Amino acid sequence: MSEEWMKEFEKDCPDGFLREDEFVAHYSDYFSAGNQRRKEALAKQIFRTFDKDASGCVDFWEFMCGMSALLRGTTVEKLKWAFSMYDLDGNGYICTTELLNVLKLMHELRYPSATEEELEKVQAPLEKVRDRVFNELDRDGDGRLELREFVEGVRKNPALLKMVEEGGDDDCTVQRLK
Ligand SMILES: [Ca+2]
Ligand SMILES: [Ca+2]
Question: Which positions carry the signal peptide feature in this UniProt record (predicted)?
């Protein structure tokens, strides 16, 4: 597995570094459908979770750490990665706006060809999902999810993460919320 990654990485990054704009371009091409601006926003966010020292470049080591946490990590490692992905501004907690934005991005990933109108329609159900997730996870009720609240809460109730990943837009999720 890691040898394949090494090859891919060397092909894409002959100088040993992957820059943000290269990653974003690569990613946008990979998902041919979907709104360009939103795809770029998501790609930047994924890149940022890899770019641990915020240098704007990901070296092979950072790339490997990111990928292995994502693909082969323990539940806690995956949850930490999810947390850093959801914490869009990187200030150490997830606020309600960030969670809603993540829900929208996840929805767009599942339905890359959704029109603006369709996205408008899912706004209300996604807000419900957000409220539900906060009710469950925000133990101290301060409107912020900290890493500890997030990891412990989702470990106790994995269905919550599934709701976030699946965007809560299918009928059964909406049903479950009623
Ligand atoms: Ca934040
Ligand atoms: Ca809190």
Answer: none
